[in-house]
Each structure stands twice: as structure tokens, then as C-alpha cells.
Amino acid sequence: MIDGNQPDLMVINVLGRKLLIKKAYQNVVWFNFNELCDDNLGVPDYQAICKRFDVIFLLNIPKLNMGDRNEA
After folding, report:
1. 5-37 pLDDT, tens per residue?
2. CA 24, CA 10: separation in Å to the nearest integer?
3. Which of these, 19, 24, 22, lies nearest to 1 by C-alpha position?
4. Given 3, 18, 25, 39, which residue has the most CB atoms within 10 angstroms?
């Protein structure tokens, strides 16, 4: 999907703030679960990510329970 290239840092502007993307290449992005679901992100952040990237990989998803409803 990335033609042997290495992913790199990228910044997306969301409502006047900068959202740091640690691992992206063109239209592909990788997140660890805690980067995307434990950080202080909101709907505009997720929408900006979805608009910018065609493929989103979510890695290291833990087993969630009822105490993790916010993360889920």
C-alpha cells in the first residue's frame, strides 16, 4: 500500500489546532489504539482524519470491558 516507502510525521489542521499524525504515507495512516482512543480527541479530529486518509490502520487494540466505554 505504501510502495516500500517509510511512513512519516504529518500535521493536520483541525479548527485552528495542529493534530500530529505520527505515522502516515500519502493516503494511509497507522495509529496505536491509545494514540487514537485514549488521547483527548473529539469528533472534529476524527472527521479530519477520515477526510484526509483513505486507509486507517488501528493497531494494538486491547480487550475492552464495561469500564472502557469511553475508549470504545
Report:
1. 777 899 999 999 999 999 998 999 999 998 888
2. 7
3. 24
4. 25
The one-letter code for the residue type at 22 is: K
- Checking phi first, is residue 4 left (phi over 0); if not, alpha (psi -120 to 50) or beta? left
* Cell, residue 13: 489542521
3-state secondary structure the chain: CCCCCCCEEEEEEECCEEEEEEEEECCEEEEEHHHHHHCCCCHHHHHHHHHHCCEEEEECCCCCCHHHCCCC
